[in-house]
Amino acid sequence: MSPNQTPIRLGIVGVGKIVRDQHLPALAKDNDYRLVAAASPHATVDGIPNFKTIEEMLASGIEIDAVSLCMPPQVRYHAARAALEAGKHVFLEKPPGATVSEVEDLKALAAEKGVSLFASWHSRYAPAVEAARAFLAGTTARRVSLVWKEDVRKWHPGQAWIWEAGGFGVFDPFINCLSIVTHILPPLHITRAELDFPANRDAPVAARMAFAGSNGLTADAEIDWLQTGPQSWDIIVETDAGKMTLSNGGAKLAIDGRIVHEEPEQEYPMLYRRFAEIVRAGKSDADIAPLQHIADAFMLGRRNVVGAFYD
Ligand code: NAP
To answer: Would you state the CATH architecture of domain 123-266+295-306?
Structure first.
């Protein structure tokens, strides 16, 4: 923040795991922001006024420039509309919405109101993503393999919404992979998808997918939420300049097995830096490409029913 700029007065909405783990620590160290209020049905943030709903927060008279919406995607659209209608800049947690068209509607409303809309894709800010992008820009990618396998019981314990319609199931983490893929590789489209739904749930627990690009590029994805032991968040690309492995969700880059980039992650501090940048520039940054792929997977995908899932 330059000396003549005042901090962005921020309200945070939907105080759950990601707010406690990432948003609050990032904001505490960022002079660009002053956290002035929070709204959540049950949880509260110490030291600031708390409200049950975003409507109460917006009507409270507290001066707020921007809001971060961190509740589950199924209930984010109405909150985002209320904030944009009130002239607030909006930071959307990922995924930016439960449908593509609701995010398009928010983009149009933000433009009409002259405020910034940020569809935050935290994995795009993983430490080795820009190095991977630069490497791929200098060669031709031929074949891509996406391996996203993690243990839902470890990472999302007891989160009912994630298994409900609009919660995305295993695509909640896999959209992070797609947010990187759509940032570093040429455009791809899904050609085949097979989705495994637990008999007692409305969202998938595993999937296998194939993609193609216009230039002969192909990709496949192995996605699983019941992976115990080592967890995999890998993007492997066969290129004319060697085999690129972007692992640990974008934290580590190797070319032909040699590590070329690895540093500690700073995803949320960088997300907030980007949000301040677009607010001050009067711009929006709301790419829906990762969300479109998930919509396409549900549209094209064959559905298998597999064993029931219990936490
Ligand atoms: P979570 O722990 O279930 O927290 C979500 C919170 O939203 C709940 O605790 C609930 O607060 C609140 N909420 C529910 N309905 C609301 C409404 N109508 N208005 C306002 N608040 C409402 O979920 P999370 O893990 O933080 O995930 C939230 C979002 O962040 C998801 O889109 C997820 O994909 C994304 N994200 C999560 C992670 C992660 O590692 N967990 C990482 C990156 C991004 P109360 O407790 O007050 O009822």
So the answer is: 2-Layer Sandwich (3.30)
